[in-house]
Amino acid sequence: MLLWILSDLHVELTRGWDLPSGDAQPRFDVLVVAGDLIPRAERGVKWLRERVTDRPIIYVMGNHEAYGTDIQRTFEEAKASAEGTHVYVLENETVCIGDVTFAGATLWTDFALKGDAYRAMMTAGDRMNDYKKIRIAAYQRRFLPHHALTRHLKSRAFLKNEMRRPRHEGKLVVVTHHAPLPEMSHQASRGGNDNTGLDPAYRSDLRSLMLPGSDDGRGAVRPPDLCIYGHTHESFDAVIGDTRVVSNAKGYGPWLPQQRTWDNPRFDPNLVIEI
Ligand SMILES: [Fe+2]
Ligand SMILES: [Fe+2]
Questions:
Q1: Contact yes or no for 104/93 (Cβ under 8 A)
Q2: pTM exceeding the 0.85 threshold for the entire prediction
Q3: CA of 166 to the centre of ligand 2 (A)
Q4: Domains of the chain as residue ranges with CATH
């Protein structure tokens, strides 16, 4: 199966660039979009449906999908507009296409990357737009780092559960927005987000789930065949344990219509990998 892998297209901060169309599109079976397509996920669903009409699309919300809105509300509206179509909006859910199971979640983070989760949550709460621009509880309250942590733990439990299921010959592809591994600086295109104080809000270390045979007492976890992520605006492709891990994020830009540059210079609009 050929997967066309993209993330962080940030349509809201893009001028004069669009998804390749017609003959300019690569050969693919499934398009995977790992979040930060556009604020309001229902607009993301519409954008995708207008551009790819005849093949399945896996779409996971990024943090930016919830900017200026209520995170649950935009998710529900996206689900409603994707209902019955070829777009699958996944949050702690799976969809099977052929012999491949796609498990999707935004993921958020555990803030534990540098060891001091409390401090990392305070820093993120002070400095990140996520905790100023996203609402919860029917717009009544602000989304805060502890809400992100709760969501992370729920998604992590969901993913582990999927990894415990017998898969026989089938493959498992995990799609998240936040990164499932610490920065691998030899690979990252520009260090992604340079400010290490915020790193724990971008990444969690889930590498133990990529090693065969890890067991927390509730059954052995079989690592996914492939993990796809976004959020850090980098290009990444490496095998960790039993899992290939891939990111292909555009990031912001082009800023002007005549420019052909964007945040991540290594972004490949036509990146396809075979699973
Ligand atoms: Fe992004
Ligand atoms: Fe993001």
A1: yes
A2: yes
A3: 32
A4: 2-274 (3.60.21)
